[in-house]
Q: What sequence folds into this?
């Protein structure tokens, strides 16, 4: 097979306000290749991709497409050079149809009038080619997240993109849907389309990619063929030092007495949820997206009401009709959407961290700044939060540090039960390892932890026991004290298996 | 130790509001020179303070509601209704303080009801308070049959004419409200929670903050302050006028935004709103002294507001 070079980025440099974020970065991509682009947050991956897609301008360097030097000044230039990007946060207008979204910004027109029929036909053709089984006139708001992602890809295909950049496409879709996406990618690859695939998920990268480029601190560290490398090597390249054991110790805290019992919980999303939680254990929740894991957490935390069922705390039935009730019973929750529901991004670190315990230092119109500082100090040390000052805005921090602040906020409140919904979503390997250690340590200190995660290795390597959910019901509770539960076992229950 | 912290806070305020403080000083200097000292004459200063106090208190009201991420467009109509009500009550033989209390508490209760409608129905506050702007104005016109209600009540008159240490009482009251509101916003859990709601309502809910209750109370406070401003206006003209306060919400929003209150919620201070109101007050007064055509004044005001918000937007972009 002859390998045509479709993209060659050479010695790309970029600085913001005098800080160099890219240093002589080089990236080559061949026709029909799926290239993983990996690196910790802040390594420069997205900056590089933003330069390629015309959102940022390079300071120096050369971009060649099909061996011709080009300049990409804006997203339209990128599109004209057949480069498209699918962003991590889906950027579709929900109130418009698939067709309208696909052609948004470059509507087909004749003499200023829209050429509606032609747009619908072209969009429909692409939608069909992706086996989406949808009318191109469907409103985007009616689609699932995975379908919306495919619409983004349809957008790229309508403009006959040669290079498609995917930025963490599986961050918000289920394993099933991810598999569908991979099938589509393989088909498109066979047609000669090249991909740059940004992801933090190692399993996926090994499954779908041909090669991997690793960036660190604004430099391209290495590019390897997938069959010539392994997970450990990539992690070592990413963090610049060997990773002993990502998940910390092998021993799991098994917990002691029952602290909470949930019996037959039912509401709009939950069919039947029963499980119990022991003091000082890590109870993992696994299942496909839509299985009702987050909905269970929301019910326990008082965001959603439940129609029937009981929650028992220390053997006594408690009523939870709102977040206030959950707080009174010392139940805390780190929500999955860090930016949307976890943090006040434009407020300071100190503010976010002490939001739940302000009563401790604000009394009768007097603010005790010493107490405030003490609280911030305790948790920024305990969780080693990297910051310039407590007055820094949360928006400026990396995902990992932001997540640590959300967790600190709840630790300051000293809950008995802490629910963590996707605690490592979108954060880099180094910060992940720190969060795993922290979860272990908290369980040892006696916190009872419920951890929801879509990443199976995370569930298998951290949890003392694993609750598997499917379509709003608990299908199995697996004992994992010695780490013996396998991926297959969990998937079996998550996909609807009956008995093993 | 304590002293040091206080100076730090002062320094911070000056840095934070540096641009607007500078603008005020420059405006005063220019006006002082171009009007040959007329600007600083006692009659002009008291003139300036008169119009400033009303707008400033309305700007405080607007600041509260903007911080929680909502808006109240009915404050101008409250000027009319509270003014007409208090004058009618005084004419009916009520004494001043009970009448004042009824007007303020009544305003707060109605504000609370409007707030409850907003948070429980999910209708946008912009639309609900726009409707209330008409309803309240209509009620004001209805109860006095559209004519002004004059009163000879001595205490109402004294509310704006009394001076303490050479300062008019309304000015002192304005600063008192500023201080009280600052304490509420900076030094109470309630105030901190107001910022949280405006900054990210979902995050506030997930942190167990009673968002609905806080928004309703904030609406009450907003209406109460608007009613108070209305009483001051009535005192100044010794009558309640159903046409008073038309368009005042625009000036109040302008002052708040000029003073750094974010239109999108979650950011702003009472002191900032005070400075914003001062800028608008000085500008209006100065343009009058310089005998600038009144239509041009409106145009200039509009342009300055856009410029101020533009500068603020740039500042925010740079910080991210």
A:
């Amino acid at each position: 097979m002859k390998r045509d070079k479709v993209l060659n980025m050479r010695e790309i440099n970029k600085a913001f306000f005098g800080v160099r974020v890219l240093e002589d970065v080089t990236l080559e991509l061949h026709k029909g290749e799926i290239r993983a682009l990996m690196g910790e947050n802040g390594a420069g991956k997205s900056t590089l991709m933003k330069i390629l897609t015309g959102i940022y301008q390079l300071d120096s360097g050369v971009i060649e497409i099909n061996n011709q030097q080009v300049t990409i000044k804006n997203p339209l230039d990128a599109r004209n050079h057949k480069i498209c990007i699918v962003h991590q946060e889906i950027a579709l207008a929900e109130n418009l149809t698939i067709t309208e979204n696909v052609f948004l910004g470059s509507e087909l027109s004749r003499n200023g009038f829209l050429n509606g029929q032609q747009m619908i036909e072209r969009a429909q053709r692409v939608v069909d080619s992706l086996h989406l089984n949808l009318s191109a006139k469907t409103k985007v708001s009616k689609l699932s997240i995975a379908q919306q992602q495919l619409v983004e890809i349809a957008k790229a295909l309508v403009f006959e993109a040669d290079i498609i950049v995917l930025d963490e496409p599986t961050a918000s879709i289920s394993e099933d849907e991810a598999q569908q996406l991979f099938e589509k990618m393989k088909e498109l690859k066979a047609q000669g389309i090249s991909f740059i695939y940004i992801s933090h998920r190692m399993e996926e990268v090994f499954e779908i990619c041909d090669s991997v480029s690793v960036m660190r601190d604004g430099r391209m560290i290495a590019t390897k063929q997938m069959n010539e490398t392994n997970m450990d090597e990539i992690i070592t390249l990413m963090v610049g030092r060997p990773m002993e054991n990502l998940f910390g110790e092998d021993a799991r805290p098994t917990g002691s007495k029952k602290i909470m019992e949930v019996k037959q919980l039912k509401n709009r999303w939950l069919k039947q949820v029963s499980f119990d939680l022991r003091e000082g254990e890590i109870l993992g929740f696994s299942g496909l997206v839509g299985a009702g894991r987050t909905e269970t957490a929301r019910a326990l935390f008082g965001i959603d009401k439940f129609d029937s069922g009981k929650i028992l705390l220390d053997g006594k039935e408690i009523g939870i009709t709102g977040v206030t009730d959950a707080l009174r019973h010392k139940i805390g929750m780190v929500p999955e959407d860090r930016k949307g529901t976890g943090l006040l991004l434009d407020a300071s670190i100190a503010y976010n961290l002490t939001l739940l315990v302000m009563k401790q230092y604000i009394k009768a119109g007097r603010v005790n700044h010493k107490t405030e500082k003490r609280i911030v100090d305790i948790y920024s040390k305990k969780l080693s939060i990297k910051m310039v000052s407590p007055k820094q805005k949360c928006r400026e921090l990396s995902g990992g540090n932001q997540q640590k602040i959300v967790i600190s906020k709840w630790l300051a409140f000293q809950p008995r039960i802490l629910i963590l919904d996707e605690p490592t979503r979108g954060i880099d390997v180094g910060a992940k390892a720190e969060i795993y250690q922290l979860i272990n340590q908290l369980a040892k200190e006696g916190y009872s932890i419920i951890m929801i995660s879509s990443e199976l290795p995370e569930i298998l390597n951290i949890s003392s026991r694993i609750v598997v959910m499917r379509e709003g019901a608990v299908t199995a509770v697996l004992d994992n004290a010695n780490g013996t539960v396998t991926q297959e076992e969990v998937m079996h229950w998550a996909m609807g298996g009956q008995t093993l | 130790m304590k002293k040091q912290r206080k100076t730090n806070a002062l320094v911070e305020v000056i840095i934070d509001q540096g641009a607007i403080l500078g603008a005020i000083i420059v405006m005063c200097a220019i006006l002082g020179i171009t009007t040959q000292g007329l600007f600083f004459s006692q009659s002009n200063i008291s003139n300036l303070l008169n119009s400033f106090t009303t707008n400033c208190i309305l700007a405080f009201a607007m600041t509260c509601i903007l911080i929680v991420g909502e808006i109240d467009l009915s404050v101008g109509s409250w000027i009319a209704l509270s003014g007409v009500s208090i004058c009618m009550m005084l004419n009916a033989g009520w004494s001043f303080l009970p009448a004042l209390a009824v007007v303020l508490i009544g305003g707060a209760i109605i504000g609370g009801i409007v707030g409850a409608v907003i948070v429980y129905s999910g209708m946008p506050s912009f639309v609900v308070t726009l409707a209330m702007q008409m309803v309240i104005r209509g009620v004001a016109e209805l109860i006095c049959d559209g004519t002004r209600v004059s009163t000879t009540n001595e205490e109402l008159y004294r509310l704006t004419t009394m001076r303490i240490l050479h300062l008019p009482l309304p000015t002192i009251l304005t600063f008192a409200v500023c201080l009280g509101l600052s304490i509420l916003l900076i030094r109470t859990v309630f105030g901190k929670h107001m910022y949280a709601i405006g900054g990210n309502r979902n995050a506030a809910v997930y942190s167990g903050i009673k968002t609905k209750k806080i928004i309703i109370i904030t609406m009450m406070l907003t209406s109460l302050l608007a009613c108070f401003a209305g009483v001051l206006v009535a005192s100044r003209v010794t009558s309640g006028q159903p046409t008073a306060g038309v368009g005042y919400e625009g000036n109040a929003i302008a002052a708040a935004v000029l003073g750094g209150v974010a239109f999108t919620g979650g950011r702003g201070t009472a002191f900032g709103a005070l400075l914003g109101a001062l800028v608008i007050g000085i500008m209006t007064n100065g343009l009058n002294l310089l005998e600038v055509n009144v239509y041009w004044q409106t145009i200039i005001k509009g342009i300055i507001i856009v410029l101020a918000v533009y500068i603020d937007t740039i500042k925010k972009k740079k910080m991210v």
About this structure: Residues 175-190 of chain A form the longest helix (16 residues). Chain A has two domains: 5-239, 258-494. Chain A has a mean pLDDT of 86.
